[in-house]
Structure formats: structure tokens, C-alpha cells
Amino acid sequence: MTINKKINGTQMYAEVNGRIDTVTVTEAESILKSDLDGITELVLDFKGLDYISSAGLRLLLTLQKTMNKQGSMTIKNANETVTEIFDVTGFSDILTIE
Amino acid sequence: MSELTLDATIANLDKVTDFVNEELEKIGCSFKAMTQIDIVIDELFSNIAYYAYKPNVGPVTVLVDVVDDPACVFITFMDNGKPFNPLEARDPDTTLSAEDRKIGGLGIFLVKKTMDEVSYEFADGKNILRIKKSVK
After folding, report:
1. Dist CA B84 CA B99 (whole Å)
2. The sheet that has B126-134: what strands, in order across it?
3. Which of B57, B59, B73, B85 has its CA 20 to 30 A from that of B98?
4. Would you state the torsion angle of the CA atoms of residues B76, A58, B94, B122, taken in this order, to the nearest 10 degrees?
5. What does the alpha-carbon distance between residue B45 and residue B108 come to, in Å, rounded to a whole number?
6. CB proximity A69 to B under 8 Å
7. Does the beta carbon of B1 lie under 8 angstroms from any beta carbon of chain A?
8. CB-based contact (8 Å) between B39 and chain A?
9. Can you give the residue range of the structural domain that contains A26?
10. Distance CA B83, CA B122 (A)
11. Mind listing the pLDDT tens digit for each residue in A69-82?
12. What residues contact B100, with CB distance under 8 A and at least 6 apart?
């Protein structure tokens, strides 16, 4: 799992590659949550994300809750597998997916 | 039937995933089914690693059994830890807002939703969790 993070003013754009699972979620969490203070627009680009397990879903939920308070969060380019997981778990209704 | 026994630790998750994927590749498993199975391995193996022997570490055995017609795979996780049936957990309410969503129960819910069959039994002092998935 790798994350390519760019901060531009109050926007954070993060490309997440590989998988977010039980093993990688801790690192993903520390990368995505650091520098989040003052961010009003968080964009997660999942073009390179192979899959996400429930550990990753929990991370997305906490990020969404944080961004609900300080701005917005958008998920882009999720593949079919990841989209299905969002649908099955009802996360499609919680997250903003483009 | 292939079998792998190792310590139930998060550090071993990749070994289990690789072991199962090797078996799945032999039978021409579709990419989609393999991905769904990999996620389920994450859910089930991490449950065992986190809870079965807490606060100690113990072994887990993973069995992979392939059936030809129709092509499907049976994967069994066995541990000697505390008796625990994860299938008894209440399904999460998937209609709640982000603020009201609980974080528990999602993993097992995903397992139930993406596998064809999931069963649990406690026998001979072992937790035995078995999944079945069509691989085409």
C-alpha cells in the first residue's frame, strides 16, 4: 500500500494504491489523518486501490466523520470490487462517491 | 486438499493470503472471486489473530479444498482458542448515517454477503469456520 498525498491550501488530494487491509490500515490511517487540521476538502483517489476490507471501511468512516465537521470528503475512481463493497455495506449512502 | 498451519498473528496475514491465492490460481479462479476471497481471509484471519488466544498467540490451520463441478472452493479456518461463533453477531444497520454508524460487525457482514455459504461449528475443542465460494 502506498499513498501519494498532495496538500494545496485547504485541499488534500490523496492517491491510495494497493490494498487497505488489517495490515496496512495503521499506516494508511497515520498518513491520511496527519495534516488534516485546517483541510476543508479531502479527495481520495482510489484508481490504484485493489481492495478494501472492513478495517479500511472503519478508517473511511472516521475520516468522513472528521470531514463532516470541517468540510467535505470525496472518493474518486473506485474500481468495481471496491464499489460493490461500498454498496453491500451501505457505505455508498454515507460517502460521496464520484 | 492443501493445508497451512501457522501462528495466528497479523504479521502472517500475507502468508495465508498468498497460500490461498496459489491454490485459487491453479483452478483458474476469476479475479473478482479471488479479490472477494482475499478480503474474507483478511476478515476471518484477523478476527482469530486479535481475539482467539488473547493475550497469547496460538496456531491457526487453513485448509483449502477445491471441487471441480461446479468449480468452487471450500476454505476452512481452525483454531484452538476461546469458543466464539462470529456468525452470531448482529448484522450492522447499513441504513444509518455516518454519525450513527457503529464500527463493529462489518467484517463478518461482508463475509456473509460475498461468500456463497458460511458455517461455524465448535468441535474437538476447535473453532471451525468454513466458507464456500464459486470461483467462476
Report:
1. 29
2. B2-7, B59-67, B72-79, B126-134, B117-123
3. B85
4. 30
5. 11
6. no
7. no
8. yes
9. 2-94
10. 7
11. 999 999 999 999 99
12. none
pLDDT value at A27 more than 80? yes
Task: Judge contact between B24 and B34, C-beta under 8 A.
Answer: yes
Q: Is B84 exposed, middle or buried (0-12, 13-18, 19+ CB in 10 A)?
A: middle
A36: left (phi over 0), alpha (psi -120 to 50) or beta: alpha
The structural domains of chain B, with segments of one domain joined by +, span 2-134
Q: Write down the ipTM of this complex.
A: 0.88
Give the number of A-B residue pairs with CB atoms closer than 8 Å.
Answer: 71
Looking at the 3D structure of chain A, how many domains does it have? Answer: 1
Class of domain B2-134: alpha beta
Domain with residue A8: its CATH number is: 3.30.750.24
Residue B36, chain A, CB below 8 Å: the answer is yes
Query: What's the pLDDT tens digit per position in B55-102?
Result: 999 999 999 999 888 899 999 999 999 999 999 988 999 999 999 988
Partner-chain contact A89 B38, CB within 8 Å? no
Q: Which residues of A touch B110 (CB under 8 A)?
A: 53-54, 85, 88-89
Dump the DSSP string for A53-74: -HHHHHHHHHHHHHHHHHSEEE
CB contact A92 to B (< 8 Å)? no
* CA distance, residue B42 to nearest chain A CA (Å): 7
CA angle A56, A59, A62 (to 5 degrees): 155
